Amino acid sequence: MTFASTNQKKFDEVKSILALRIAVDFAQAELVEVQSDSLEEIAREKAKSAYARVGKPVIVEDDGLYIDSLKGFPGQYSSFVFKTLGNAGILKLLEGLGRQASFRSIIAYYDGKDLHTFEGTVNGAIATRAAQGGWGYDPIFIPEGAGVTFAELANNKNDYSHRKRALDKFAEWFTRRD
Amino acid sequence: MTFASTNQKKFDEVKSILALRIAVDFAQAELVEVQSDSLEEIAREKAKSAYARVGKPVIVEDDGLYIDSLKGFPGQYSSFVFKTLGNAGILKLLEGLGRQASFRSIIAYYDGKDLHTFEGTVNGAIATRAAQGGWGYDPIFIPEGAGVTFAELANNKNDYSHRKRALDKFAEWFTRRD
Predict the structure, then answer these.
(1) What is the ipTM of this complex?
(2) What pLDDT digit, counting tens, does each position of A160-178 carry?
(3) Domain holding A13: CATH number?
(4) Within the 93-132 window of chain B, which residues sit less than 8 Å (CB to CB) from chain A?
(5) Range of the domain at A159
(6) Which of B99, B107, B93 has the alpha carbon at shortest distance from B144?
(7) Could you say which of A78, A141, A175, B131 is the most buried, measured as most Cβ atoms within 10 Å of its Cβ?
């Protein structure tokens, strides 16, 4: 199985989550992304574009942070917003506003014939300041029940991770279908 | 000529700018948008998608507000950011930061054979509070040399407008090519 993404850190997580179940290699690639309100549609198109590139069964991920008081911002544009505003910008925007948020991951699998998607979600809140460590929004996202951010959870991030939840569904489907 | 867009207000401007030169009708349509760093690429793909929809020569526009101190945010995602954060969010983000910005418009023309793009830019700054009237980012964008926002310029907006500048280039090319 190949995981296609621009993001090496995402691949490291995917590989570690699937480790005992499915062997995964990495294709670092810029993939075509459509602008859409639907993470699932973005992931499906990305999977097709990845398959066209690597020519063998692939999985891709699209994920987004949805902040309730900001009408779902940054949502499907989380990656662009992280590169421009960063966590500091999100914290500034949330001054005086509600902090409820959720993180959603869609894993899309395509082998040239079958196209399947798997979703994982985790509810939580945005911290009032950024923690040390982690990557992306990990320093400011506190999953429900954890009491600390993804960044502070470090190796225990996977007890809560939206990505882990989506990959578990994928792995269950993939290992049973043969 | 058909102008395809989801945005009626954009069409009203386009029609009025081209009025004495080219007759334009409106196709209100959701068009496929790719996620790209390049406004031009987005506009080109949108023009092809619009032509496939309406089956006759079309123009489409993609525009973006680029704020220097926010690394170009909201840029190519200006429409999504307006719907979620609005002008209030932009003003909050800019507290204590530089206010230089530019507005860029790309007009893309496609007739099933020829694909051409035309660019217009206006430099300016983000106001410290939103003015009354206007639409989109007009209440907070002050074009260089105007001293007031696009919203306050009202009928004189076209003396500075990025959209007007792109459309003028298009009109000149289009009316001369026959």
Answers:
(1) 0.83
(2) 999 999 999 999 999 998 6
(3) 3.90.950.10
(4) 93, 95
(5) 2-176
(6) B99
(7) A141
